Structures are given as C-alpha cells and as structure tokens.
Amino acid sequence: MLHNPAAAAAAMEEQLRQQQLRVLLNASSRPFPSSSSSIWPSNASASEPVTAAAAGGGGGAVSPWDIALCATGTAVACENALVLAVLFYTPSLRAPMFLLIGSLALADLLAGLGLVVNFTVQYLLQPPHAAVALSAAGLLLTAFSASLCSLLAITIDRYLSLYNALTYHTERTRTVTGALLLLLWLLCLGVGLLPLLGWNCLRDRATCSVLRPLTQDNAAALAVTFLLLFALMLQLYLQICRVAFRHAQQIAVQHQFIATAQATSPRKGLATLSFILGTFALCWIPFAIYSLVADSSYPAVYTYALALPAACHSLINPVIYAFRNPDIQKSLWLACCGCVPSTFSSRPRTSSDV
Known about the structure:
It is elongated, with a radius of gyration of 26 Å. By secondary structure, the protein is mostly helical. It has 10 helices and no strands.
C-alpha cells in the first residue's frame, strides 16, 4: 500500500489539506491588524493583506498624508492652546460668549492632539493593543464632535443675543452656560466611547468604513447627524442675518442715516456670514458625504484628501471666533507687546453684527 502511487498521492493531498487548515486556524486567531483599528484610512484595501508598514510595525515608509495630518494636528494644538491661554489668564474674559469660545478652542486642541496621538499609535507602537488604537480613535471622535457641537452652541448663542436682546444677559449667565457645556461634553464623550463599546469593525473587516474602526453604518449615522447640524446652523444664521438687518434698519431710521447703515452693517454681516458658512461647508461637507457613500474598498487617497481639509477647519476656527474679537485682540497685544497700539479700536459688538 505504501508503494501504491494512487495511495501516496491521496496521502499527500490529505496532508496538504490539513496543513492549509492549520494555517487558516492560526490566521483567524491572530489579533486584528493595527491599521484597521485606527481612525486613519488604511493603505491596503479590504481584500489586500496588511503589510508590516501598514500595520505600523516601524519597518515601512511613512505616508506623506499621515505626516501632513500630524503636522496639521500640531499646528491646530498650538494655535488653540494660545486661545485657551489668553482666555484663562485674562479675568475680564469670563462672559458666557467667551466660555463658548473656550469650549471650541479646547475641542480643537484635543482634535489636534488626537491627530498626533493617532500618528504615534499607527507608526511608533509595535504593534499597538486594540484598546489603545480604539481609545485613540475615540479621542478624535470626542474632539471633533465637541468642536462641531461648540460651533452649534455659538450659533445658538448669537441667535439668542439678537432675538432676546433685552433678557439675554439675565438669562444666559455663566452658571447656565457652564451647565450646558458640561452636558455637551458628556454627550460628545459618549460618542467617543462608541468604538470601545462595540461600534467597530474589528470582527468583520468587510463592514469597515473609510474611517476605521467605524463600520459603514456607524459612519453613515455620524455623517447624517453632521449634515443635520449643518442644516440647523444654516437656518439659524439666516435668521440672525434677517434680525440683524431689521435692527440696522431701525437704527438707521432713528439716526436718519438710512443709506449709510444699509450699505455698511448688513453688507458686513452678510460677508461674515458667507465666510463662516462657506469655510465650514467646504471643509466638512465633502468629507461627510464621502463617508456616507464610500466604503473601505475605495482608495485611501480619497479619504486623506477629504479628511485633511476637515482637520484644517480647526485651524480656521480661532481666526473666525477668537482672533476677530476685539477683547481677545487687546489681550493678545498686551500679552505679546505689553501695550495696545494707538490705532487699535475696541468697538463693542452690537446687535447688528453677525
């Protein structure tokens, strides 16, 4: 029987089958590749093997997109740390409006740190534990969720300051604003914990979205929520512009400067409104729509190209909401130069400003 060619071939075939079965069993028992447990897009598609470089083993080249995101995160963290330092060390900047600006700066600061942490997890840890990678992804989700919610809170605050101008300062105290911000951050922290609580695709790579470790359904839910928030912000800013225009007309009638008032204040408000909503839409909406329709089989370069502008929006936020404020500008001049230039005009914000 041992010298029978047919029997020998059958024995050889059975041995190869058992060897392949052992390889499959060993592969299924390995931990999930670290790149697939990161919020960063993977360089390999769902059908390709994950190499040591993609898994962050330190043996491959670093993606220039990852370097760009890490550099952006560093710049975001430094810029927003400056805003927080000015707000913290200036006792006069304690109004509810500045608490909201501080919440936005803190969220963007954490977003910048989250980009740096994810870069470190992906490339420097060899290999990272799944819980570490999920926690890094959760930090990004928490930070960007808090950033978007803080933008919505600032929009609502501006609307209330115009719509309820007479009772605004008595109703919107620091205690009320602080309590609302605490609830906001607790909600965003819950969003950040979702990957650790099972909102991930570690067990089934086929369900991964372009934002691993989130599944396609999870990423779609977050994208739809973002689009709804943007629609709400757009509606509020349109109402703000309408109320501001009406106030400008009333002031113009009282001072008999109708032509001048209509040519300056509403026009400036519309320009500011267009800049705020335009930058927000250009930076975030393409990324949100792509996350809604794409899956992990799409090339990673598309995700990088759309995620980078979204991250850069955290660089624009301090310019729009902090550095344009006359009180913050004055504090920056005092901190940097020790004096305020004679050409500086600290005009208080009126109800006609958007």
